[in-house]
Amino acid sequence: MRHQSAARNEAALPIWSASRQLARVPCLNPNRLVGPGGRVVFIAPHPGDEILACGGLLQMFSTLGHPLQLISLTDGSAIYPGSQRWSEQRLSVVCPQETAEALRRLGLELHSLKWIRGGFRHGVLEQQADAICQYLRRYLRHDDVVFTTWREDGDSDHDAVGRATAMACAGSGARLIELPVWAWFRPLRDEHLIPWHRARKIRLNTWGVARKQHALHALHSQLQGDPENGIPPVLKPNLIEQARQPFEMVFI
């Protein structure tokens, strides 16, 4: 019985906190991802996803002087369906404002960052995949390096954006780099579903981790939820804890 209990507890642990495979992922210098002067494009399903997925990389590429383009496909308005406190109308204004503050906390100069908002409907991106692909083709160049959510991340919007971005990159010749977000929270028994052969770690220094944490705490609406109506926050404590890792992981 003790062995069965231990097995259940291990299975309940999230991949990020217990995977032996994760410990063996090799590190990669960011210069191997993007060449000198290369443009970096971050495609976020919702405002704030770019902070969570790769806030450290955003800092790094900005410091290295790479031109940055950020595309937020939705306005983040449907993170709390049915909430009176956080109506879609309110969130459509608040979420982009919070993301702008988070980017500022990362040290990015907003006047030099090209930020495009797509206006797609939050929560139903899988129904808009072809339109998203065509939309992205308008902005991608053949020499871009494009970062977005992994197409098997486990969230329907994240998965849809990953697939649409992959198609857009294939059509434009841009290089695609995928990022896990919700996949980190799958139980340890699912670690075999992660493409470890494609995984690489980009090391962050202490300052980089601290800035990412500071930026995440600018996303007030995602941290608060709607407790009066029993709606928990999007950014739960375990997600904030996971973001303290001293690296970003990418799938190349």
From TrEMBL:
Recorded superkingdom: Bacteria
Protein name stated in the entry: PIG-L family deacetylase
Q: Which source organism? A: Pseudomonas vanderleydeniana
